[in-house]
């Protein structure tokens, strides 16, 4: 018998093998039974593709052996088929040898007739036996007699066949233990996770073994997702096992060596999957010996060591065809090292999903209770969308009063909940000391900084910073964004800062000081020590402070000092001052001190390690005297230092890359040697109104950007190198005629070979010029993407623009009549802005409004273009949902804006909110436009036209969604305008591919379609588009 069992050993591909006589049951009964099996996730063998013969073939025998349950449907003609009888014999053989479950259904036949082979059933049996051997007849008769004794359903006892079929399916499910779990129903976002994972698993490919990974930070929900997946899929596998919490180990528990700990892990897995209570293994290939022919589902949860993974699932050959091995981990490197390439990264939920997760824990419903809306949003934001934090904090607040909510939210701002800390700390504790140090540097000082910047700051440390950042990213302890910024989750940042606080009860003995009150006390009491590496001091969170002479003296290892005014406005007028005897600053690598109160740095200030110097809005008159060692210095920012009279000697700053002197209004002279520094890339001197002298020749090979605009006192102007990319001419009054002639002449007409100097320009400001048309060299500036023209009172036409242009702003050109735009642009033009251009002719207005690639348009006007069929006064409009709307649909909006000139707004900020019936926000589009130092005085009404996607990423609407019966468009404007009316047009597909001329600009004219194409669409989730003044935002880096 043992040999027989061994011969029959095989994997189980099917839950059920049905044995039946087709003509009796296939068309009705069997099809309905298959339907209910499918609903319960029960896999049934189907024999439609097998050619029937006199005897059952090897495929059918294999299918019987690979099934967990056989259902024998005994009908009146069942015994008329030798095929059915042979199936029955094989089924009973598997029952005996493999323990296969056999169930019976007597379909319109008496069980006694089957047992005795009598009646019509017996007659059919006798016909089949005719011509067969006595041996065949005896084994068939024995099988029929045996199977008739197995209790089963009798169709004659059921008045409703449908109810009988439901019961059979339920009985099979019960025997297979396949009752699908409801534990994960209603979990926010779970369906989307499971769909993505099923795609990765490729369950339809049953001829391969597949391993996939689930990767994400601690507390993101990897284990919950894996358990839900296991609940959904385990019924499809004969053998399945969920190995939870593998971050612990047998070695740590039992004190055994590595080999024994691996044996322990293998023993645990085999005991679980084979359902043995005490199964011992003696070598590390035991899993392969037991499972290599079995189709298994194994989930290895929270794997933190590659050796554990290799001990449990070293290679696919350990498991039978169709097996699926799923590994969850916080460490991406483990998956890659094991050759797992199909990895599902669990991302953070959206803000809406996070609030829903929080509310389910706090209120047991998907939305806040009345009166708790703002509190719920605040607490959810403090959890920074981490599901673990949302659930733990939500549960702790359930049933509490608003007062308690306020207290706990304040506590959450200052400390971590113990349950959250325990989960997050695991990843930190497993880091090496060096990588823990990198973690603390990021958590306390360099979060949201550029990788290159942080690498420079820590280059001379022993931290191996680039590799350390990669390690932390692979372990989901931080994220490197696509634009190279380091992003650490809020709760992980708090964990790091809490770890630093626990270094000592005395703040002055900790590595980093970030709590404002601790810093206040350390500086006021002069209790700092050599342990302090960095200070980040938000002055807005304390009272007035006087820093005395020895405040920094004992902090001999201080490398990073940041003093700034944060976002808190409660102490906006706080004063920080230094005494004259403050004579010591350590050898800093980073010094940022906003509003520095001194006129000069302490004489003992050491600069040899300095990499970045940021002294915005300081009272400095000069920095230091003489020549200082500055070989490491890369960035200098002295913006808005109104008292600065001279630039320090920077001749030794050979690695200087960026220097900004915005609004240094007392600065008179700019040293010539600075432009010869070999690595200088960016120089900004905007608003230096007392600046009189700059070098006559800017021929350095290094500068990529030079801005000297709004320097109204400039007496000479340099010869411009071909390397200069950005030039802003506004309000420059050059006093020396010789230099003025050299400078202006090439810009007013083409002058032989000089014109090539202008062709590399990217941004050009032609403001305050006495020109009637655009200079001809502009047409040939093939890299020009931004053109600003302000206060050119004689300008009559704008034409001859290069196809590279993306931003065109024309402001207060009161004589402007004609605008001719290129028919084709290299890239879609972003902005067409014409403030206060009141004389534009009708043809130019039509060209501007309907230009096929313009995303944002603004020009004078007090009526809607006729294409906007939905119009209303005020800042909102409701339109009905149309049948042709879809997720890919787009809209075009027009706002009528009225000027508000008694405002101090320095930006045009327009936001469009789209809400469904029930006030559910499903899309948001924002447009931010930063104005220059003097916002234009708006003279009359303007129209602002823009477009976007109809459905944002926050919501994807399904057909029949009742909440989408109508759409509310709500517009808000923060600027020198107010919205007096709005119009919306939903664009059909054909609108995106057709241009139709508009007869006039009257709302009373007939509606027509227009070309509306934006090949560079950044999506409805766009929160900010680049303005042609966006360079002004970057002046104060």
UniProtKB/TrEMBL annotation:
Reaction equations catalysed: NAD(+) + H2O = ADP-D-ribose + nicotinamide + H(+)
Gene Ontology BP, a term: signal transduction
Annotated Pfam families: LRR_3, NB-ARC, TIR, WHD_ROQ1
Span list, region Disordered: 997-1021
Gene3D superfamilies per the UniProt record, alphabetical: Helical domain of apoptotic protease-activating factors, P-loop containing nucleotide triphosphate hydrolases, Ribonuclease Inhibitor, Toll/interleukin-1 receptor homology (TIR) domain
SUPFAM superfamilies: L domain-like (SSF52058), P-loop containing nucleoside triphosphate hydrolases (SSF52540), Toll/Interleukin receptor TIR domain (SSF52200), Winged helix' DNA-binding domain (SSF46785)
Keywords attached to this entry: Hydrolase, Leucine-rich repeat, NAD, Plant defense, Repeat
Gene Ontology terms for molecular function: ADP binding; NAD+ nucleosidase activity, cyclic ADP-ribose generating
Keyword RNA-binding recorded: no
TIR domain segment(s): 12-176
Database matches in InterPro entries: AAA+_ATPase, Apaf_helical, Disease_R_plants, Leu-rich_rpt, Leu-rich_rpt_3, LRR_dom_sf, NB-ARC, P-loop_NTPase
EC code(s) of this entry: 3.2.2.6
Taxonomic superkingdom: Eukaryota
Name this polypeptide is given: ADP-ribosyl cyclase/cyclic ADP-ribose hydrolase
Provenance organism: Microthlaspi erraticum
